[in-house]
Specification:
Shape: globular
Largest sheet: 5 strands, antiparallel
CATH superfamily of the largest domain: Aminoglycoside phosphotransferase (APH), C-terminal lobe
Number of helices: 12
CATH class of the largest domain: Alpha Beta
Radius of gyration: 20 Å
Number of strands: 10
Strand content: 15-25%
Strand order of the largest sheet: 1-2-3-5-4
Distance between the termini: 63 Å
Number of domains: 2
Structural class: alpha+beta
Helix content: 40-55%
CATH architecture of the largest domain: Alpha-Beta Complex
CATH topology of the largest domain: Aminoglycoside 3'-phosphotransferase, Chain: A, domain 2
Length: 327
Amino acid sequence: MLPSIRIDSWDDWTRVYNDVSVWQGLVDAICMREGIGYLEMRSASANTNAVFLLDQAWALKIYSPFWDEFDFERSLLEGLGSHDEIPVPEVNGYGQIADGDGLEWSYLITRYCAGRPFSELRSELSDGEGRLIATQLGGLARSLHELDVSRFANAASEGAWSEVVSRRRRAAAGELVDAGVLEPGVVGSLEALLDEAMAADVVESRVVVHGDLGADHVLCALSEEGWRIETLIDFGDAKIGVREYEWMPVWTGFCGRDPVLARAFLDAYDPALAHDSQFAERAVAWSLLHDFGGDELISYWRARGRPRPFETMDELAALLCPASIFG
């Protein structure tokens, strides 16, 4: 008899999504269906889905009921499996399985990836080693954005993108004012910037974006030539969207707001951006139109001790895409 997993709210989910005891029965049923055996099961860190590592051989993701990520992540990973220049986990199984109440749960099984997250490794690296990995990531992001979008785009991906952007446009300025991050007098300028960015978003210019290229999702391994990126993981936030949507997680998550790492990333991604006077404005706009851009900014502001609210757009830009990157 499979367990019943009752999830009525986000709070319910946060209490159980990484609890092995809650998911053990469902995981066992999935493994039996897929012909996989294991001895040890542990939850993975830095996730909002239920992700479990099985014997350092498999990674099993059971998707949250709050987002529709499964189909796009699965199809994208399968498509990227034939692109050697973009290293991603190998897909070994997927499907839906019903729990004891008949609720369907989508799942994805990939090969376990043994590299070390850049978040764990960063403090051990020399400045040159860090720049080298940032350079590699810039090249990988370029390759990702150069993919043939038509292979992955459909009505569902268009709907997912439109939903996120519309929701963030409605919420972005107000949530910053309510949190005390932004002075109300700046709202008009910010909303004009967001509207300008959205007006320039045309279907023909969209690319495949990972959506969360933070340091936890960049796995590295030591080779004879030094540390290199081994695998990019967790494409659950991937979308068909504008390339600047990639910026916020790279700047805050991977680079840790280090201008040197950011410049190494950008030079490898597209050297022309260093001379593009409009890039910083687009980066600021899409940082706040990003699915979790507002949450990231508010959390960082609170961690700094809640300094005075930003009174100008220049102050906001100095935090989200500072001029020191391009100096």
